[in-house]
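I had to read the description of the data format several times before I understood it. The format is easy to grasp once an entry is in front of the reader. For illustration, here is how one protein appears when written out as sequence plus structure tokens:
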Amino acid sequence: MDFHLSDELVAVQDLARSIFADRATTDRIREVEASETRVDERLWADLAGAGLVGIALPEEHGGAGLGLAGLCVLLEEQGRFVAPVPLWTAGVAALAVAAHGDEEQRGRILPAAADGSLRLALALEEFAPAEPDAPACTATVDGSAWRLTGTKAVVPAPQGADAVVVSATTDRGPGLFLVQADAGGGRWEQAETTTRDLSGHLHLDGAVGHAVGDPGGDALRQTLRRATAALAAIQAGVARGALALAAGYLGERHQFGRPLATFQAVQHQLADCYIDIEAMRVTLWQALTSLADEAPGADAAVLVAKWWADQAGLDVVHRTQHVHGGIGADVDYPAHRFFLWGKQISGTFGGAEAALADLGERLAVEEVAS
């Protein structure tokens, strides 16, 4: 199977890399991390102006029509620079509206989401023991709308979001609902995450929401698959960025009159990182191809990509921080920032062990069915 990027995706990659390299400098990231919202609004505006914020959305609504693959190319470049903008959450939430929303929702939301003037947040996780595909948050019918009650945990970057795509369970099964960020019956509790992002716990008590797709249908399942792939793409970028930083550091530092990069033990560490990153990217693109083709094994492919992103991604940021020696433990040094991003992504929607357990269960069910 050929996983080479198309010319369109290569152009997206080059443009995104250029913008992130210019705008997401270490000094700028430090400045944003000390700001009130922890979101780089200037960078968001630059990405929107270049047409990248709406890269995945349909052309008829102002996007570039490149779908999840286009979004993942953008996210991998973001990960290389650990740039503090909520691209994955806004992108996956907008794709949920594009794929499952009704005509009114698509016409009202997607053009503004594509040009960056409207931003969606994504609330898919809850506190244990709730699983993302079986939320404890509930939604009950109230006329043409729904009333949502429950708590969504650690909603990424709600600052500046106009609305939130929320998962909740109905009497028909789980579904997605669009809730205004300042809706009555909703309350935000600020929470700081591992990546230094400001997230929020969203407490809902009868807040009004509007269904995105048919409750009990496949909107939540499809959105979770897209979100998982999006996180794997960021993690691949984070790992790549961490490896590049470590290679540059080791080439400059000397010990016993030789560059540290010439020591075999260090070379082996970075070789292992390179192998892990290649496996992460191959399994990511296998998952994206399976999703695009609606292949029978798409769910398994996504879980495989998640396992590699969680396990290998965390291994890479551990190794690259380790080879920096004492300076790698400095919380203000760039290597530590890559470690923080890798650590948080590896635990989102459950860690590597959860992905492996889900994959084993799925394969067992398929074996019994055959």
Remarks:
- The beta strands are 120-123, 138-142, 145-155, 163-170, 173-180, 186-192, 198-212, 254-255, 258-259.
